[in-house]
Amino acid sequence: MRAITFFLFSLLFMGCAGVEITEPPQKQDTAQTKTIVKTVQPKLFSSNAATKKILIIHSYHQEMEWVQEINNGISTALRKRIGTDIETQYFYMDTKRKTTDKWKTEISQKARELIKDNNPDIIITSDDNATNYIAGQMRNSKYQFVFLGVNSEPHEYGFPAKNVTGFLEHEDFIQTANLLKENDPRIEKVAFIADKSPSTEGLEQRVLEQKDHIPMEIVAVERISNFSTWQQAVQKYQTQSDCLIIGHYHTIKDSEGETIPAPKVMEWTLKNSKVPEGSFWAFSINQGAFCAITVSGYQHGYQAAKRALEIVDNSKNAGDFAIKTIRKGQQMINTTRAKQLGLQVPKDILNNSRVIEQQTALD
User: Fold this and answer.
1) Which of 24, 30, 126, 276 has its CA 20 to 30 A from that of 105?
2) What is the tens place of the pLDDT at every residue in 139-183?
3) Domain residues for 337?
4) What is the domain count for the chain?
5) pTM (2 decimals)?
């Protein structure tokens, strides 16, 4: 099946150049790949009434590792039916790199217009911004939604609603703290740092709620918006804390107000920190952080797609299904970072972990 990519230029989307609606990349002969440039709003789906149309709307950009994990899960769940009785299209809001309220308002309006113009059978919204600005604003409408990867509590976006269900992303803070302690029993204090994105609002609250259930004292819970403050925090906690737990770091700004690529933030952090880091996502460990009990983007994508099929196949309302929390993840250790920190990871931990031996800059 040939992947068709629609590049929506500023003439089409009033300044939204660079946003893509595309199928996930697949291995194929690039000479056979068609790229169609449109100056009028395209119809996303075929006119075949026998196929069910699924629109996946991502909060972030296609290159982000978390997004790719989700797309892999969706593709796996749908692979036996894509090209037969299921059609999919993808829309990327790019709100990690473009974080202003103006951008979020404009790009979410374009997404809602696409929904109304193309009338998909069901929409999957990924992460908080897409869920808030699209599913939240179209709740109790005729359109059916399944959300995934949402960190905030459902009531903050107006749920429950008759046409919305989904899956919450709750990280395993307690087990990540335990994993740090098991690898370095000297740890007595921890500092939690993260950016100020919507994804970290709920995370911050859960960290505070669970602080009395971890084997160390929390000396700080800090959400940071700019890089200079991030640098100061990392340096400060070298002496005030024995380890760091790092939340999202994708919306950190430089002195000009531009978003710094997340791998660059992590790269600086690792070069300037001598204490172990814990996190909650595979991308953090792939970028060099020490350890994590991860949230699985793959599981979020897979479960959301399966739920979407269940709704369209049985002509159900999404709201008939309870909102659930996905906790299934994976224990990960970066052994390169362990060596840098002078830590000897116990064999039983290595045997039960996904081991990363190098750093990547994918994001």
Assistant:
1) 24
2) 999 999 999 999 999 999 999 999 999 999 999 999 999 999 999
3) 173-294+330-356
4) 2
5) 0.84
